[in-house]
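Hey Z.,

So I finally got round to the adenosine-5'-diphosphate thing we talked about over coffee. Here's the setup:
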Amino acid sequence: MKQLNFTELSLSSETQKAVSDMGFVEATPIQSEAIPVLLEGHDVIGQAQTGTGKTAAFGIPILELIDVRDKVTSALIMCPTRELAVQVSQEIKKLAKYKKGIAVLAVYGGEQIQKQINALKRPVHVVVGTPGRIMDHLDRRTLDLSHLKMVVLDEADEMLNMGFREDMESILKHAPKERQTVLFSATMPKPILELTKKFQNHPKHIKVTKSELTVAAIEQGYYDVKVSQKAEVVSQLIEQYALKLMLVFCNTKRKTDEITEIFQQMGYKAEAIHGDLRQNQRNNVLSRFKRGDVNILVATDVAARGIDVENVEAVFNFDLPLDAENYVHRIGRTGRAGKSGKAFSFVTGRNDMAKLRDIEDYTKVKIERQHLPSGKDRVALAKTKLAERLKVLIEEGDIDQYEAMIADFKQEGINLHQLTAALLKLQFAPLMTSVKETREYPTERESNNDRGKGKKQGRGKHSGEANMVRLFLSIGKKDKISKGDIVGGISGLAGIDSSNIGLIDIYDKFSFVEVDTHFLNKVLSKVNGNKIKSRKVSIEIAR
Ligand code: ADP
Ligand code: MG
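And the result:
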């Protein structure tokens, strides 16, 4: 497929300038093919996957076609989701940067319709919207499509999947006959072909071939893991690659909530995004993710459609996608616009392995098995990192008051060497145990049960209080222990008042308990290896 520089396409100087401001030099294959054909006035069927630059492929011709002096809606773009509508409108606004007076508006459900009605009272040249909301405006006669020059169906297959067929057809019937109709779709099932037959006029078919699908810049691999290890493996990979922004995919809404909670318990800033969130909640989560205030976004396929966040460093297929095409959609969320990215898939058992082979067949890319770094490597890495942090702290100074404490410890009979070693133990103990075994985090069912209970008792969440430290305790529901048993056991063994024990979360095989940092050493030394409710327990700082 040919690929041109934008300067080789005959575009207005305004568009050239905007495109170069956006950092585009080379047009993508779909842009190189579609832009000239659309500028000539043909209808187009574009078949290309996510991340191939389709928005500019139709956005640029739309802007070249519009005359600002026409105070009418000249172009309509239909998108399957609110996020996509917003993103497409933003991208078109950027492309229109130097075209003075061009108005672009996104209309979608979930936003107050009155706000959109007011905006539509002035001329809006380009309307981007979800079919349901566009219909709503047509019914209210607040949107006039009788002057349309171009209609775009973006991600048409997805709109059909979402049941928008009737709306799409009635909208198309509102548009004048001598318009241009553009349809983009990742797949070309029969209903799509019917739609193009019915509503397009000798369309040119432009297809980006599969070999161009998976962006070469994305490093792909899989890990053979138990279900209960997945969260822990994510955590290790975050550490190994110093990841800051990542997407984790699950197959159900419920799972996204459960997995999010596990990540939060592990201390990560994680949020779920799925169809049950209200529009402002979704926007809120997305913008916090874009800012990096949320590091892990846990999503379903539908919710992640079209999410275009730059700098997503990695995509995790916590659950393998149900089909190979979704795999391409998912991993296309990283490695955006020429950046590199990583895609990690988790494979559990033979079914998953078969799915992975299907994905390889479809994408024509071999996905290699990966192995986690050994415990030794991880300890070495943590040591290097600690050394760096210590150097910074020492450099910054302001540690006199801590230096003064050394004398206090000496008086307690602890020498400098012991003090340092014991502090290192505090720091590294969790890592040392996970060198021996990969700790099992709760499976979906376990965490779900517990969450229900926790809510009732108002004890579900980590209090996060600064003076409390969260500990991992090796007994859980299967040992038939209650929160009272844990409080009683710890306070008894350590000889501390129960008021120094905070929130407790009991899972099937283990529990988390918060303890006042003041008594941390006491609790660790007195409880570890001793018995609670006649069970020998181990206790350590939770990671
Ligand atoms: P699609 O609709 O095919 O999923 P988008 O239009 O959302 O893809 O584009 C994906 C990303 O690539 C966006 O961030 C967009 O700004 C960027 N992009 C588009 N075209 C180019 C180009 N020619 N060069 C560099 N980046 C581009
Ligand atoms: Mg798109």
